[in-house]
Design goal:
single chain; 8 helices; globular; mainly alpha; Rna Polymerase Sigma Factor, Chain: A; Arc Repressor Mutant, subunit A; about 65% helix
Length: about 160
């Protein structure tokens, strides 16, 4: 039930599909080892995504600098904020999503594609709900600019 949503979320964080599968496997190991800490079953989605996020961040930090450069370059490309589900071309939306900085990409993925609430996303990301709202707002704007301009620049500073 959770494999596909977690895989999709992790795929937005990982550089390759192989990395995604590694992250997912480690996520499941950590979940099973710490499942006893989950007190409220309603918190399971936030628990799973937070665990997956922690795995990805930990693994990405351990990478040599040259492997991280592509992720850092994407992080420098701008902010996000636009309801991208209204766009017809899903491939174009996903391409735009991949070009966003990691914080906005995570928020948009969890909100629109994984159907988590603002409060659940805040719990997963470890930030205030207001920050999540801001990331969603700016992320949707950046995706809209990317799709409207079609030039690959999500910041509009080409």
């Amino acid at each position: 039930m959770w494999e596909r949503p977690l895989f999709y979320y992790l795929r937005r964080l990982a550089a390759t599909e192989a990395d995604t599968w590694d992250f997912l496997q480690e996520t499941w190991l950590r979940v099973f080892r710490s499942m006893h800490a989950l007190r409220d079953p309603r918190a399971l989605p936030a628990f799973l995504y937070a665990t997956a996020r922690n795995v990805a961040i930990t693994r990405l930090r351990l990478r040599p600098a040259d492997e991280q450069s592509a992720t850092q370059l994407a992080d420098e490309h701008g902010a996000l904020d636009c309801a991208f589900l209204a766009f017809d071309d899903a491939e174009e939306v996903h391409h735009a999503l991949d070009r966003l900085p990691l914080p906005q990409r995570e928020a948009l993925t969890l909100y629109f594609l994984q159907d988590l609430s603002i409060d659940e996303i805040a719990a997963v990301l470890g930030c205030p709900a207001g920050t999540v709202k801001s990331r969603l707002h700016y992320g949707k704007q950046a995706i809209r600019k990317f799709i409207e301009n079609g030039d690959g620049d999500v910041t509009g500073t080409n």
